[in-house]
Structure formats: C-alpha cells, structure tokens
Amino acid sequence: MKSLTRRITLKILALGGACFGLPRTVRSEEQAATRDTTRLAHSPDLSTKVSWSKTHDRVWLDPRIWANPMEDWRVRDGAAECQTTGGNRNLHLITHQWTDPTGSADMRVSLQKIGGQQKDAGAGFRIGAKSELNEYRSNCFASGGINAGVLEGKLVLGRNAGSKSIDLADETTLRLSARGHGAQVELTLIAETPSGKKLDQLTTKVQSQAVLGNIALVNNFNAKLKKGQGGRYRFKDWTATGNAFTVDESRRFGPILWSMYSLSDSRSDEGFVLKISALTGPLGKQDNQKIELQIQVDGNWKSLGHAELDTDAWTATFRIPHWNEKVATPYRLLYAELKTDGTEEESSWSGVVKANPTGRPLRIGALTCQNHYGFPYGPVAENIVKLDPDLIYFSGDQLYESHGGYGLIREPAEPAILNYLRKYYMFGWSFREAMRDRPTICIADDHDVFQGNIWGEGGAPMDVQTGGASSNGGYREPARMVNVVHRTNTAHHPDVHDPTPVQQGISVYYGDMVYGNVGFAILGDRQFKSGPQHVDTGSGRADHVKDPSFQTSALDKPGLHLLGSRQESFLKKWGEDWRGHKMKILLSQTVFAGVATHHGKYDGYLKADLDSGGWPQTPRDRAIDILRQSKALHINGDQHLTSLSQYGVQKQRDSMWSFCTPAIAAGYPRWWRPDEVGMPHQKRPTHGLENTGEYLDGFGNMIYVYAVGNPEVGTKKNRYEKAHQKGSGFGLVTVDTEEKTYQIDCFRFMIDATDGKRENQFPGWPVTIRQQENAGDNIIG
Ligand SMILES: [Fe+2]
Q1: Residue 300: helix, strand or coil by DSSP?
Q2: pLDDT digits (tens, 9 = 90+) for 750-770
Q3: pLDDT per residue over 48-94, tens digit each?
C-alpha cells in the first residue's frame, strides 16, 4: 500500500506548484508543504493523533515527539511506556504550540500505571510549558506549566484536586478542554473509563498567559522524585485539536533527523567524492533499517541506492564517487517506515549538494562549543543560514555532559550511547537547517565523549583510580560509545588518511579534504596526546599550573606526544601535496598555545593549562615546524575565548596563524589579560589594543596575539543576552585563492551578521592575512 504521507506529500506538491509557482527544488517542495500545513492549521476540524498502535517496539517514539530523556522511553505493544520511576519524564508534542489563549483546545490521552510505587506519583498532561524565549525547542527543557492529570489517586488540575478516587492501574482516559474567556482561560479536565463512564471532573480558570507554550505528557509530575520513588505509566492515542494551537508540521524531527555531507576532490580516478550521512532516531529490530538516497538530475529523481543504518549510531552513510561537482544537485534521503500491519509510511529529508566553488572565494563558517544554557542558539544558527557559507566547521563540544538534564550515563555502552544520542540530537535540532545545504566538517572533542578534558593517549582506557574524567589521560567511556561519537560526527567526512584504529579499537578520523580550491587537514589533536599524569604541575591538579613562579619547562618531558607520530607523518605529506588546490587550512580542536590567563572565575589566574595545545612544548614546536611549509591557517575552537594569533618556534612570528573561534554559547569562561598580570610583551600591533603583541605563554611558547575577545561575567537571565555577554559568537573565514588571502571575521552572538555594523565583531576583527604570513613572511603589524 502506498503510504499516506507519500500521498499527502504528492498532493501538497501539486498544490504547492499551483499556488506558489513551485517546485524549484526539493526544498521548494518542503516549503510548499510547510506553507500548506500552516494554512490548514487554522481549520477548525484539524486534529492530530499521536498513536503507537502500528509502531514497532523501539526507543525513538515519533517525529512529533521530543522525549525527556529519550533513553527512559520505549514504544511497547502499541503505546509509549516510561522505563523509569524517576520524576518529570515527559513527552512534548513539538508540532503544536498553544499560541491563542482566546481560542479553544481539546486534548485526550489514554494512560495506565504499569509499575513503580503504590503511592501514585502522578501522570497526565502539562500545558503552558515555556522557557523565557517561549520557543518550542527550548520549551521542552523548561520547568513550570500547569499539570492536568491524576496525582495520588485524585484528579488534579493546577492547584485544584478532585474528591473521587481514581485508580490508574485501570486504563483511564483523560480529556482536557480549554475555552478562552477574555483574559482568562477556562480549563476542564475529565477522567473517564475507556467505555466513556465519567470518573471525575474539575474546572478552573487560569490567566491566559499561563496556557501559552508547549503541551506535553508527564510521567511523575514531581520533578524531585528520584529513580525508585515514582510510578511508571503507559500512554497511548494522544489527540490534540483546536484553534488555540499553531501547528507546524515542518517541525517534525525524524525519522531522518538531519543529514551531514562532505564533498572532496579525491585526486584519484574517483574524481570528486560525495559522502553523506542520514541520522535517524534509534529504531527497533522490526523496523526498516535502510535509507535511500536520491538525487535530482534533469528534473527527475534518480536513486543512488540504499545504505544500512548502523544500529549503534543510527547513521546511514553513502559514499558516491565520480560526483558531478560542477552543478548544485538537490538530494533527498528517504525512509519507509514499516508499520506492524504491513503498511509503509514514507518520509524524507532533503537539501542541496553545493557545486564545488570555483572562480570565487571560499567562505567557511567556523563554530565551536555549544553549552545548552544557550540552546537552541537561534541567533548563531540563523546568521549561518543567512550568510550562506560554502562549508561549516564544528570543532567540538557539540554537547556538554549536562545537556538537556536528567544526568549522565557512563556505562554500560548501550544506555550510555542512548544518553549521548539525545544530547547530540540537540545539536542537530539547532543546526540542521545550516547543515542540509552545505558541507559540514564536525569533529568531536572532550565533552562529546563525556570528559571535561581529553588527553587521548592513543586510545588507552583511563585509569579511573588515578584521577577524574577531567584531569587524567585516556578515554573514560566504553570504546563502543566513543566510536558512536566519532561515527555520528565524522562518518560523512572524506575518507580518513589511515583508518587503523587506536587502542581499544577506537576509530580515528584524521585526513584531508580538497574543496573550493582549498586543501584541508582534519586532525584529532587530542586523540594521541599524552596525559598530565606523566608530569607534576605542583598544584594538586594534574593539568593546572597555578603558581606564577613554577618552571613550566620541567613539564616538557622527553617522549610526550601532542599530535602523535601518525598525524605528524600525515601532516608532512599533506604539506607537500598541492594537487587540486592553492591554499591550505588546518582544522583541529584547539590552539597550539596557552592564550588564556584566567579560567573559570574572573580572578581565576592560571599560569598554564595542560589541556591547551601549548603542551607538551617540544611536540608543539615540531607540529608547527612540520606545518610551516603548508602555509595553512589553523582554525580551531574549544577555549570559549576567541583569539587571533601567530605561532613562533625559533623566533616570534615565524609560522602559521591561528583563529580560535568564539563559542556558540560559552560556558566555562576564560580570559586573556596578560597586561593585568604583568606578562611582558613586545611589538604591540599598530591598532594598539590591550593584551596584544608578542608574548611567551605560560609554557614559554612564542605567541603573537593580534586580537582577543574577552568576555564579561555572565549575569543576564535571558539565555541569548547571557551568551552574548559571555563572548559567544562564531567565525567566518573567506579564502581568496586568487588574491591568496584569508579574511577573518569574528562575530558576536546577538547580532545580524549581514547588516555590516562595526560593533557586530569582536575588537580587532575583521583581519585579512596573506598566505605567506603563515610561513612567517609577515606583513601585518
Ligand atoms: Fe568547550
């Protein structure tokens, strides 16, 4: 049987073409669908029903649902079941927003208690769930709202409780209706048996503002309940109807959540190679586990075949050699969801593979570090889409351990992976519009593998007896989970240089890419790095040097690694290989110097941080010496403190420049305030900005700091204002391969990057450097 979704899509396509003069591309089709859906949204008889009656058992629930946390929920026997007795597990209907308090709304759900404590911890609806932004994704993580359900055996609606006993061990239907009355909304909650016999009813009035926001189902209303304290419930057939809701079907998230692709000149008989990954939510054993890739050629869709989903990472990756890089090519990824009754429901995710940029400069969006307090980072994500760069680069910390709440699962691997995936999905949810239409390079850093810092020690397991996950060498997480992190971030990258795994079978991802006449080296600059346990910082913390008089040369012990011999030999070859490109860029996690004097708190002076790429000093110098011939610009991140600097080895300014980009949303703050702590400097640039010039960093490395974006202390309540205060933003690098220049823009968080205002950028930017300056042939001063 043809799927309903497919038929509707085709119908909408026809409508779209007729109404809007579309379709131009797949995107146009989707825009048409979106517009059509929005138009239908205000039809009074539009009703949404989320039912799992034909869904196979699995973790991922539905494209219309965001589950908190994903790992605590399962589809089981035709319903959504909570797996834990902990507090405030919830499901948000992300296609719906309660936007009109004067309108009407009606919801219904069937629920039943299936386990947990005798004392009823409560389940039912929550309405009015909203963050300070009242934006649908951020609302999913907000506290507050009005509960409407059953608590301790009684009906409960806001602060009101019913008098009759209701036993949720029996399947019960909850009906919530709302009618706007001026500045108030009248809410009525009814509990009834499946056959429609009323058990109890409550009615109350609330201020109209209180109902606005997300609607959700909740398992254990009390957020303070720990695992073991509450109940477990089973929910099915959730319906939502009414003109109080704005419905936006384009907010569906899955089964294909998003995609990432790369395009690279292989300089072999394979020509340009496209690699693209589709990411789905974790599906079930009985679900279809194949994705199809189609491209549009001469106006017709052509299948390029199917790829199997990896059932740990839930990624399906296609590798397409002989790609026609000369034209922009619309693509779509298709998933046919097999239902339990044998029917199929087809859905798609689409975008455009850009043509390889030629005859004009290449523009790269450069991003790092997204702390969830700033989720979903709207101003940055929107600026990237508006600027329309040819490539985007995420240099790590796509998530932090606390992302989305509900704690961290470190082991065993299977639940740790699900715990990771939900956090990672918040990244895709924020940036999928930016990633669908342009190549993405995305490397993992420490927090992505649930560590505060990482010194990978060539894949060695961390000795957890000798230190915590932030100040110790090796990998803390099971190798299987680490490999999922690598696969979800990098499976779509051009082929790795040498795929031989490191210890524990942990995968590597270093390699190169040639795109837009520019050659890129992609490194894992912490994967082989030696850990701080090899040296003594004298501070009590293995990775921090606090004493200003400490001789950091003592930390430069023989035999320590920074990039590791495999990546060093790769870089030697890469620096000599100029086939197919004229300029080079090095992409790695962090800057090869300690460009921060204060950490954590405004007065938290730190002489040196072994997490920086300035340690160990000898392999740091060797890496820069190897790279000098490449004349590459180093683009990195990680620091939450943007800086533009130039490395020195034999003398100041004898090698490449480094652009450490601002964090998308800066968490842990750092500052570079050498003037204040009396670090000597020479040759301050002619712009005269404080804290710039030639310095020896805390390790004694030569570093010429040209510009820095020190943050304020974050005090604002609004997340975007706070992110702006804390020095968040993003970079844009424009590589002109004819002029042989790199223009480096460094944008703040809450700005419109297209309006040309000077104050959009951090002090000292934009800066244009010439290719030769990356080999110490200096012009800027
Ligand atoms: Fe970070």
Answers
A1: strand
A2: 999 999 999 999 999 999 999
A3: 999 999 999 999 999 999 999 999 999 999 999 999 999 999 999 99
Task: Summarize the confidence of residues 458-469 as an average pLDDT.
Answer: 87
Cis peptide before 766 (omega within 30 of 0): yes
In the chain, the amino acid numbered 478 is P
Q: What DSSP element (H or E) covers 488?
A: helix 479-490
d(CA 174, CA 339): 27
Ligand 1 centroid distance, CA of 246 (Å): 36
Structure tokens at 20: 């809007």
256 sits in which H/E element: strand 256-265
Cβ contact 608:552 at 8 Å:
yes
Q: Checking phi first, is residue 28 left (phi over 0); if not, alpha (psi -120 to 50) or beta? A: alpha
Spatial distance between the Cα atoms of 671 and 662, rounded to a whole number of angstroms? 12
How close is the Cα of 170 to the center of ligand 1, in Å? 48
587 Cβ contact list (under 8 Å, min separation 6): 393, 395, 441, 443, 520, 521, 522, 523, 635, 636
Task: Calculate how far, in angstroms, residue 369's C-alpha sits from the geometric centre of ligand 1.
Answer: 4
Question: How far, in Å, from the CA of 636 to the mean position of ligand 1?
Answer: 11
- Per-residue pLDDT at 584 exceeds 70: yes
Q: pLDDT by residue (tens digit) across 19-47?
A: 322 222 333 334 333 333 333 333 444 58
Distance 628 CA to ligand 1 centre (A): 27
DSSP state of 460: P
The DSSP H or E segment spanning 708 is strand 702-709
